[in-house]
Design brief:
The chain is an alpha/beta fold. The protein has helices spanning 26-39, 52-63, 74-81, 95-105, 116-130, 148-159, 165-169, 177-184, and strands at 11-15, 43-46, 68-73, 88-92, 108-111, 138-141, 171-174. The protein has a domain at 11-144: Rossmann fold. The longest helix has 15 residues, at 116-130. It is globular, with a radius of gyration of 16 Å. Bound molecules: adenosine monophosphate (AMP).
């Protein structure tokens, strides 16, 4: 277990794709993320599926002896095929409850490559952090430069005056999850005054 950071034994929500991506080995990288979180003593909460990167994170976490909770609406339990080996599977009514339950349990959010569902989950938590609904850090694990285009768009938001520099700085983005956890240990949420743009 990593020693000496103030960011120990937390519950980390992981948002990631229900698909596995293309040529780059996103799946093995996601497996490693699950392992690293477990080895660092963190619990994980995620969407509960066994498919794609979601399943890989769960497998990695379980392989390292970690605790991982899935949260899944009952309508998705069969379609996304709930992971059978989880420490806990919480079945909820709908997507809104799923996201609220994951957010409630989490001390921080990590985002791996994924599709529209992943980005929706990311944007929701980033937005909620901006308006002070939570003070939890958010990290993008930028595997294979997957988030470069998104980060460019976020820069454009600042340049065009639609996003404050303070709110851009809330986001940590690195390829390496260990580096993100180190930054999380020193995370300072923006003051709500920071919501005022000018
Ligand atoms: P995706 O990144 O699209 O593969 O989706 C990743 C996860 O997000 C899956 O568990 C999806 O069920 C979930 N998801 C898909 N669409 C939405 C949505 N509109 N809001 C919240 N979660 C979603």
């Amino acid at each position: 277990m990593r020693e000496g950071t103030a960011f120990d034994r937390k519950c980390i929500a992981v948002f990631c794709g229900s698909a596995s991506g293309d040529h780059y080995d996103y799946k093995s990288a996601a497996f490693s993320v699950g392992e690293i979180l477990a080895e660092a003593g963190h619990k994980v909460v995620y969407g509960g599926g066994h498919v794609g990167l979601m399943g890989a994170v769960a497998d990695g976490c379980l392989n390292a002896g970690g605790q991982i909770t899935g949260v899944m609406p009952h309508a998705l339990v069969e379609r996304e095929i709930a992971h059978q080996g989880l420490s806990d599977l919480v079945v909820v009514e709908n997507m809104h409850e799923r996201k609220a339950e994951m957010a409630r349990r989490a001390d921080a959010f990590l985002v791996l490559p994924g599709g529209s569902g992943t980005l929706e989950e990311f944007f929701e938590q980033w937005t909620w952090g901006q308006i002070g609904y939570h003070q939890k850090p958010i990290g993008l694990i930028n595997l294979n430069g997957y988030f470069d285009a998104l980060l460019a768009m976020i820069n454009q938001m600042v340049l065009s005056g639609f996003l404050s520099e303070t709110h851009r700085r809330m986001l940590v983005h690195r390829k390496d999850v260990g580096e993100i956890l180190d930054v999380f240990a020193h995370y300072k949420p923006p003051s709500i005054k920071g919501y005022v743009h000018d």
